Amino acid sequence: MSTPYDQEIEDLLALYQRQREEAAETRRQINEVTGVGIAPRQSVKATVTAQGEVTAIEFPTGAWRRMAPKELSEALLAALSQARAKALEQVAELTMLNLPSGVGVADLIQGRVDPTALLPEQPGMPDQVREYVENGPPEGLHRPG
After folding, report:
1. Within a domain: 53
2. pLDDT tens digits for 33-42?
3. Does pTM top 0.90 for this prediction?
């Protein structure tokens, strides 16, 4: 025996599952983000992941050979900073308006929060509702009409 709420409950559970799948896809996309920064005079090129991990440092020109150690260090830091900023911009675009209250882009980037953990596999609900979802309406409850 079904009730008028059966379809609504099914729709809500399907919506919840889509949200979980979207969260997992967002995590996958974040994991693929890289940012590239190039220092002035193209002396240093740096690539970082969304988490800030340095994946490449290149010296596309010979300019670094004429640089003092301090100048080269500053160029490297500038390229890394630019690369991180670009990676952050990409992550911010991926997550715009989809983050729950209290969760920031930095939390996702740093790996401190897994979006799928924000939406457990089974949605939270009162025991009575869970019993209804799992077992149907209690005996004696009839569909109106």
Report:
1. yes
2. 999 999 988 9
3. no
